Amino acid sequence: MATASDTEGGELLERLRAQGVARLGIAGEIPFGYIDRNGELTGEAPELARVIFKRLGVDRVQPVPTEFGSLIPGLNSQQFDIVAAGMYINPERCEQVIFSDPDYQMLDSFIVRKGNPLGLRNYKDVVEKKAKFATGTGYAEIAYAVEAGYERGDILIVPDQVAGLNAVETGRADVFAGTALTTREVVKKSNKAEVTEPFKPIVGGKPHVDGGAFAFRPSETNLRDAFNRELHKLKDSGELLRILKPFGFTENEMTDMTAKELCG
């Protein structure tokens, strides 16, 4: 017999409570969601999911590692229950999944050589100074540079921020663009490079701030709404920052933006 919850808003939350475990899709990306050296699941998103699910009556979370590009297809084919990978909310993704409100906001920043010899502060500077520009595979920063007028074919694509730091230190690139958080963390180990002040990229002619969140199947609005309620309590109490702090997040990354705003 069909009950109201079969049709309206889904019954995944009840199912997870009965099973006692929620499966999290992660993409092995530090600091968002990854397996640490001891084989334990950690990262800002899994740690936050752990707290919220406990409050919702689901005792455990279990990782399902996949590639970043497979997170949304994997979610929609039910390989896991929720994406816990710090995924940016954007209109294209909002057509395929529903998001919680963001748990963090993120600006961009550059890795440059010590002293920032070319004076690079934003993507326009990179274009005007004809700097050798690098960023990571599949990063949002590719589109931001192209929008500023950089030739897509001239961008040096490297696997991640560690490779980006290396490219700047060895002179293969003048600048590597990434999130303020990942660039800030990786240059701590360097005596040849530094990180620029975080800035807002220009998107569609306007300054843009990214927000990262948890993704759910479009039918599971009950779970998303319950998750959001607990997330907002953690924001209001200041507990959210305490959970995210060990992963390099600061007050600057806290946000009141909503998924609705970011979905456009």
TrEMBL record:
Domain Solute-binding protein family 3/N-terminal: 21-251
InterPro entries, alphabetized: Ectoine_EhuB, Solute-binding_3/MltF_N
Record's keyword terms, sorted: Signal
UniProt-listed Pfam families: SBP_bac_3
Tagged with keyword Nuclease: no
Protein name (database record): Ectoine/hydroxyectoine ABC transporter substrate-binding protein EhuB
UniProt superkingdom: Bacteria
This protein's record includes keyword Signal: yes
